[in-house]
Amino acid sequence: MSLAAQVQQTLSSAGTKDADISALIDLVDELCGVYLDESKGYLIESRLAPIVKRFECRDYSDLVQRAKSLAGNDVRTEIVDAITTHETLFFRDESPFNALRFKVLPDLIEAIESSGRPRRIRIWSAACSTGQEVYSIAMVLHEIAQALPGWDLQIFGTDVSPASVETARRGWYSNLEVGRGLDDMNKSNYFIHEASGWQVAQDLQRLAKFEVRNLLRPFPEKNQFDIVFCRNVAIYFKPDQRADMFHRIVETMTPGGWLFVGSAERLSDLGSAFAPQTHCNCTVYRPK
């Protein structure tokens, strides 16, 4: 019997193995917010079984104990990197970046200018993976920033995976990664071609700051971000975790801020404060 089948069986039966699998599911949920219900037994088999072997654990119960120990940081990091999805590309889905370029940033700049607020824009990419979303935002922002001398501009990228955040900080991508979503003009303007890949230009890197962050934990920022991208991550959370996260994200945003979610995500179930708007074929939110 495969491990996935064992997971299915143990989740519905009593005994020690059931407790062990439950402990593993709780650990993954605590570390990165991905809830491994009975439909996701394949993730345990394909992504966590190799870690059990690599760290010479007896079984999943032993893996959980190792991860919870004071010396278990390496184990915890590997579990997070194995479970979290790193699938991304530059200008993913395209329409959010059109909305950013043609609607959101122009309206935001006009609102800041007319209100007398400090000339600063803060954007948060809340699940930035290996950084492609951050640098896509940075390309759009840099185009507009050339007409905004003296403005304080920054993009804050966070992800639960330390390995992904390190890749984002480095800003180096293979030919295949750069070929996914980037046209020749953006490659020429914002990347330096090296023998085996492409390095993000300093003009973009100066706009970006990265940090490891678990979205299930409290956020230190209050009324700080003008624009938040939180796309394709809440789909892995339990409903109560999802609702709590988005309500806490709103607390980090400036009044009138803009919230982007995944193309298949809808927030209407979270209340009237999350009324959708459509711009450039993209659904965005301006939570009240």
From TrEMBL:
A single BP term in Gene Ontology: methylation
- Does the keyword Transferase feature in the UniProt annotation? yes
> Which EC numbers characterise this protein's activity in its record?
2.1.1.80
Instruction: Spell out the molecular function terms from Gene Ontology.
Output: protein-glutamate O-methyltransferase activity
- What does the record give as the reaction this protein catalyses? L-glutamyl-[protein] + S-adenosyl-L-methionine = [protein]-L-glutamate 5-O-methyl ester + S-adenosyl-L-homocysteine
- Write down the top EC class of this protein: transferase
Domain CheR-type methyltransferase span(s) in chain numbering: 9-288
Under CDD domains, the record lists: AdoMet_MTases (cd02440)
Q: Name one Pfam family in it.
A: CheR_N
What SUPFAM superfamilies does the annotation carry? Chemotaxis receptor methyltransferase CheR, N-terminal domain (SSF47757), S-adenosyl-L-methionine-dependent methyltransferases (SSF53335)
Which UniProt keywords are given for this protein, alphabetically ordered? Answer: Methyltransferase, S-adenosyl-L-methionine, Transferase
Its name, as the record gives it, is protein-glutamate O-methyltransferase
Q: Which organism is it from?
A: Aeoliella straminimaris
